[in-house]
Amino acid sequence: MVQLSPQLTQKLFKLTSFNPTKQRLGIGAFALVSQTLVDANNKNVDEETRKYSAIRTASKVVITTAGGVGARALGQKFGEWLINNEIVKIPKNYIKAWSEKPKDVLRQELSNLKGKPLSQIPEEIKLTYFAKTKYGMALGASCAVVAAAISVFAWDMPFTNKIMNLIMGKYNKYKENKAKTNTK
After folding, report:
1. CA 113, CA 168: separation in Å to the nearest integer?
2. Cα 166 off chain centre by
3. Extents of the domains making up the chain
4. Alpha-helix residue ranges (DSSP H) falling in the chain
5. Mutual angle of helices 47-84 and 20-40, in 10-degree steps
6. For 77-128, what is each residue's pLDDT tens digit?
7. What pLDDT does 29 receive?
């Protein structure tokens, strides 16, 4: 059996507790770097094709990441709003289960949820606040996933090619102007 130190466990928990918005941002940043580098260094195609492909890939990743992050952020806020305005009620069995947990466990869970050190979490936590926070974040994450799926059809599909073509048009004009300048 492997045992991790409390500090390492806390760091690993923070990595796994990213909300959907931060997850998409992280995936987008990684994709921007990795996919663009792969296209820019593809030795199977000529230099001009590499540049074109890298710019096109970077444009696509930025556009889809922006749409995904925006949709997830809106979905997260919407789910939390549903709980905070009591449009969706927190199931009583959850509140009962949380009321049976020791105060130090609740404080640790709230610290993890909020991404704050334990020293910034009050000694006494109102159970309704804890329940709204925890359930609101969970419902928000669910709404964020739905919003992300919708954003693929509402944002990514209609706008990606249009925006990429606009960027590539500007790149081609820049390239033409550069060629004209070099031939003078």
Report:
1. 42
2. 26
3. 19-162
4. 6-16, 20-40, 47-84, 92-99, 103-114, 127-151, 157-183
5. 180
6. 998 899 889 898 888 888 888 888 888 888 888 787 777 787 887 888 787 7
7. 92
